[in-house]
Protein backbone atom coordinates (compact mmCIF):
# COMPACT_ATOMS: atom_id res chain seq x y z
CA UNK A 1 0.00 0.00 0.00
CA UNK A 2 1.33 3.42 -0.96
CA UNK A 3 2.05 5.83 1.92
CA UNK A 4 1.96 8.98 -0.19
CA UNK A 5 -1.73 9.66 0.50
CA UNK A 6 -2.42 12.59 2.85
CA UNK A 7 -3.11 11.53 6.40
CA UNK A 8 -1.32 8.20 5.93
CA UNK A 9 0.10 7.02 9.35
CA UNK A 10 3.17 5.50 7.66
CA UNK A 11 3.99 8.84 6.01
CA UNK A 12 3.70 10.64 9.36
CA UNK A 13 6.04 8.08 10.92
CA UNK A 14 8.60 8.50 8.12
CA UNK A 15 8.55 12.27 8.56
CA UNK A 16 8.90 11.91 12.34
CA UNK A 17 11.98 9.66 12.00
CA UNK A 18 13.54 11.98 9.41
CA UNK A 19 13.16 14.91 11.80
CA UNK A 20 15.17 13.18 14.54
CA UNK A 21 18.78 14.34 15.06
CA UNK A 22 21.43 12.09 13.46
CA UNK A 23 23.00 11.41 16.88
CA UNK A 24 19.69 9.94 18.12
CA UNK A 25 19.40 7.71 15.07
CA UNK A 26 22.99 6.49 15.50
CA UNK A 27 22.39 5.69 19.18
CA UNK A 28 19.18 3.84 18.34
CA UNK A 29 21.05 1.83 15.70
CA UNK A 30 23.83 0.98 18.19
CA UNK A 31 21.28 -0.04 20.83
CA UNK A 32 19.47 -2.23 18.32
CA UNK A 33 22.76 -3.97 17.44
CA UNK A 34 23.64 -4.58 21.10
CA UNK A 35 20.15 -5.89 21.88
CA UNK A 36 20.35 -8.18 18.87
CA UNK A 37 23.65 -9.61 20.16
CA UNK A 38 22.24 -10.14 23.65
CA UNK A 39 19.09 -11.81 22.32
CA UNK A 40 21.14 -14.19 20.18
CA UNK A 41 23.91 -14.97 22.65
CA UNK A 42 23.64 -18.78 22.28
CA UNK A 43 24.09 -18.44 18.51
CA UNK A 44 26.93 -15.96 19.05
CA UNK A 45 28.65 -18.37 21.39
CA UNK A 46 28.29 -21.11 18.79
CA UNK A 47 29.84 -18.90 16.11
CA UNK A 48 32.66 -17.94 18.49
CA UNK A 49 33.40 -21.60 19.07
CA UNK A 50 33.42 -22.32 15.34
CA UNK A 51 35.69 -19.33 14.66
CA UNK A 52 38.10 -20.36 17.37
CA UNK A 53 38.14 -23.93 16.08
CA UNK A 54 39.10 -22.72 12.59
CA UNK A 55 41.94 -20.63 14.02
CA UNK A 56 43.17 -23.55 16.10
CA UNK A 57 42.87 -25.94 13.18
CA UNK A 58 45.47 -23.96 11.23
CA UNK A 59 48.06 -24.57 13.96
CA UNK A 60 47.65 -28.25 14.66
CA UNK A 61 51.31 -28.89 15.46
CA UNK A 62 51.01 -27.57 19.03
CA UNK A 63 47.39 -26.44 19.36
CA UNK A 64 46.11 -29.46 21.34
CA UNK A 65 48.65 -29.05 24.13
CA UNK A 66 48.28 -25.28 23.95
CA UNK A 67 44.49 -25.29 24.48
CA UNK A 68 44.70 -27.63 27.47
CA UNK A 69 47.46 -25.51 29.06
CA UNK A 70 45.27 -22.38 29.07
CA UNK A 71 43.34 -23.75 32.06
CA UNK A 72 46.50 -24.26 34.12
CA UNK A 73 46.92 -20.52 34.78
CA UNK A 74 46.03 -17.12 33.40
CA UNK A 75 49.75 -16.64 32.61
CA UNK A 76 49.67 -19.70 30.34
CA UNK A 77 46.72 -18.21 28.47
CA UNK A 78 48.43 -14.82 28.02
CA UNK A 79 51.63 -16.48 26.76
CA UNK A 80 49.71 -18.12 23.91
CA UNK A 81 48.85 -16.04 20.85
CA UNK A 82 45.90 -18.27 19.98
CA UNK A 83 44.88 -18.21 23.66
CA UNK A 84 44.81 -14.41 23.67
CA UNK A 85 42.74 -14.46 20.44
CA UNK A 86 40.22 -16.93 21.89
CA UNK A 87 39.99 -14.97 25.17
CA UNK A 88 39.52 -11.71 23.25
CA UNK A 89 36.67 -13.26 21.24
CA UNK A 90 35.03 -14.36 24.51
CA UNK A 91 35.44 -10.89 26.09
CA UNK A 92 33.66 -9.37 23.09
CA UNK A 93 30.55 -11.36 23.98
CA UNK A 94 30.67 -9.69 27.42
CA UNK A 95 31.45 -6.22 26.03
CA UNK A 96 34.66 -6.08 28.10
CA UNK A 97 37.41 -6.56 25.49
CA UNK A 98 38.84 -3.13 26.38
CA UNK A 99 40.50 -4.70 29.45
CA UNK A 100 42.56 -7.09 27.34
CA UNK A 101 43.19 -4.44 24.67
CA UNK A 102 44.57 -2.12 27.36
CA UNK A 103 46.79 -4.88 28.77
CA UNK A 104 48.13 -5.64 25.27
CA UNK A 105 48.67 -1.93 24.57
CA UNK A 106 50.73 -1.69 27.77
CA UNK A 107 52.82 -4.71 26.78
CA UNK A 108 53.54 -3.09 23.41
CA UNK A 109 54.23 0.25 25.12
CA UNK A 110 56.96 -1.32 27.30
CA UNK A 111 58.88 -2.30 24.16
CA UNK A 112 59.08 1.32 22.95
CA UNK A 113 62.64 2.65 23.05
CA UNK A 114 62.26 6.17 21.63
CA UNK A 115 61.50 8.76 24.35
CA UNK A 116 59.49 10.86 21.90
CA UNK A 117 57.36 7.87 20.88
CA UNK A 118 57.08 6.82 24.52
CA UNK A 119 55.46 10.14 25.47
CA UNK A 120 53.05 10.22 22.51
CA UNK A 121 52.06 6.56 23.00
CA UNK A 122 51.53 7.13 26.73
CA UNK A 123 49.15 10.01 26.08
CA UNK A 124 47.26 8.04 23.44
CA UNK A 125 46.81 5.01 25.74
CA UNK A 126 45.76 7.23 28.64
CA UNK A 127 43.17 9.07 26.52
CA UNK A 128 41.75 5.86 25.05
CA UNK A 129 41.64 3.64 28.14
CA UNK A 130 42.45 5.38 31.43
CA UNK A 131 41.10 8.90 31.74
CA UNK A 132 37.60 9.38 33.12
CA UNK A 133 34.97 9.03 30.36
CA UNK A 134 37.59 7.58 27.97
CA UNK A 135 36.09 5.95 24.83
CA UNK A 136 37.19 2.51 26.07
CA UNK A 137 37.57 3.22 29.78
CA UNK A 138 38.91 0.32 31.86
CA UNK A 139 37.58 -0.41 35.33
CA UNK A 140 40.22 0.94 37.73
CA UNK A 141 39.89 2.96 40.93
CA UNK A 142 40.25 6.74 41.10
CA UNK A 143 43.57 6.57 42.98
CA UNK A 144 45.20 4.36 40.31
CA UNK A 145 43.83 6.65 37.60
CA UNK A 146 45.41 9.71 39.26
CA UNK A 147 48.76 7.96 39.84
CA UNK A 148 48.82 7.06 36.14
CA UNK A 149 47.96 10.64 35.17
CA UNK A 150 50.92 11.95 37.21
CA UNK A 151 53.21 9.36 35.64
CA UNK A 152 52.56 10.89 32.22
CA UNK A 153 54.50 14.05 33.11
CA UNK A 154 57.72 12.04 32.90
CA UNK A 155 56.63 9.05 30.84
CA UNK A 156 58.73 5.91 31.26
CA UNK A 157 58.06 2.33 30.18
CA UNK A 158 56.70 1.69 33.70
CA UNK A 159 54.12 4.49 33.86
CA UNK A 160 51.15 2.14 33.29
CA UNK A 161 52.39 -0.67 35.54
CA UNK A 162 49.89 -0.13 38.35
CA UNK A 163 46.87 0.35 36.08
CA UNK A 164 47.91 -2.65 33.97
CA UNK A 165 48.30 -4.84 37.08
CA UNK A 166 44.84 -3.85 38.36
CA UNK A 167 43.25 -4.64 35.00
CA UNK A 168 45.08 -7.97 34.79
CA UNK A 169 43.88 -8.97 38.28
CA UNK A 170 40.31 -8.06 37.33
CA UNK A 171 40.47 -10.28 34.22
CA UNK A 172 42.11 -13.14 36.11
CA UNK A 173 39.57 -13.17 38.94
CA UNK A 174 36.47 -12.29 36.94
CA UNK A 175 36.54 -12.98 33.18
CA UNK A 176 39.10 -15.82 33.04
CA UNK A 177 37.08 -18.30 35.20
CA UNK A 178 33.99 -17.60 33.07
CA UNK A 179 36.04 -18.15 29.91
CA UNK A 180 37.15 -21.58 31.17
CA UNK A 181 33.51 -22.52 31.84
CA UNK A 182 32.25 -21.15 28.51
CA UNK A 183 30.78 -23.48 25.89
CA UNK A 184 33.33 -22.32 23.30
CA UNK A 185 36.33 -23.23 25.48
CA UNK A 186 34.78 -26.53 26.60
CA UNK A 187 34.31 -27.37 22.94
CA UNK A 188 37.94 -26.51 22.19
CA UNK A 189 39.26 -28.72 25.02
CA UNK A 190 37.16 -31.68 23.82
CA UNK A 191 38.56 -31.29 20.32
CA UNK A 192 42.11 -30.92 21.66
CA UNK A 193 41.72 -34.03 23.84
CA UNK A 194 40.31 -36.08 20.97
CA UNK A 195 43.17 -35.01 18.69
CA UNK A 196 45.64 -36.02 21.39
CA UNK A 197 43.97 -39.44 21.72
CA UNK A 198 43.98 -39.87 17.95
CA UNK A 199 47.73 -39.09 17.74
CA UNK A 200 48.57 -41.60 20.49
CA UNK A 201 46.53 -44.35 18.78
CA UNK A 202 48.52 -43.85 15.56
CA UNK A 203 51.94 -44.15 17.22
Give a description of the structure.
The chain is mainly alpha-helical. The protein has a domain at 61-194: Regulator of G-protein Signalling 4, domain 2 (Orthogonal Bundle). Helix content is 76%, strand content 0%. It contains eleven helices and no strands. The chain has helices spanning 9-18, 22-39, 41-57, 60-69, 74-79, 81-93, 97-110, 115-130, 142-151, 161-181, 183-201. The longest helix is centred in the last third of the chain and has 21 residues, at 161-181. It is elongated, with a radius of gyration of 23 Å. The N and C termini lie far apart (70 Å).
The helix/strand series, from N terminus to C terminus, equals: HHHHHHHHHHH
How far apart, in Å, are the first and last alpha carbons? 70 Å
Percent in helix: over 70%
List low-confidence stretches: 1-6, 9-18, 31-59
At the fold tier of CATH, the topology name of the domain at 61-194 is Regulator of G-protein Signalling 4, domain 2
CATH homologous superfamily placement of the domain at 61-194: Regulator of G-protein Signalling 4, domain 2
CATH architecture of the domain at 61-194: Orthogonal Bundle
Q: Which structural class is indicated by helix and strand composition? A: mainly alpha
Tell me the strand percentage band. Answer: under 5%
